[in-house]
Amino acid sequence: MAAKTEQVNELQKKGLEAAVQLAQLSIENTQRVIEIQVAVAKSLFEDSVNNAKALSSTKDPQEALQLRSRFAQTTAEKVFAGASEIAEVATKAQSQVNKLVSEQFTASSTEVLGAIQQLFRGLPIADQNTLNAIQSTLDTTRTAVEQMTRASSEAFQAFTQVQVPATTGKNRK
User: What's the number of domains the chain is made of?
Assistant: First the structure.
């Protein structure tokens, strides 16, 4: 019984480690997004001050219109660049989270199935047909879990590859 308790404790420990890794990824990516937002806001503020100074010193209406037009264009470019950077951070974060969850799911499933298999081996079941049926069920379950994990990883990768150009503007003409 102590061995089973140790197995459960080990599974819980690994789950906690994965949760900590997930939290760390979340914190790091949130920090990066905030850094991008602060940099863009600071740059836009500085540009606004410089633009206001330039506009206050001009007397020509055409020159003022050109300054406003350049300022609007520069502002839009900086906002879009910041949004693109944030989209790239989000895409990378999605990929990292998917990888972590897939690895954790696969490892946990394998360990749980192994523990179940070990449990059944320790039971006093005399009928070999019953043991074979249990083993076959466990093998089928393991295969199904592996296929499901592989399929979800492939689907997520395909989704991420489609989303990256759309969010970063790299596919625009």
Answer: 1
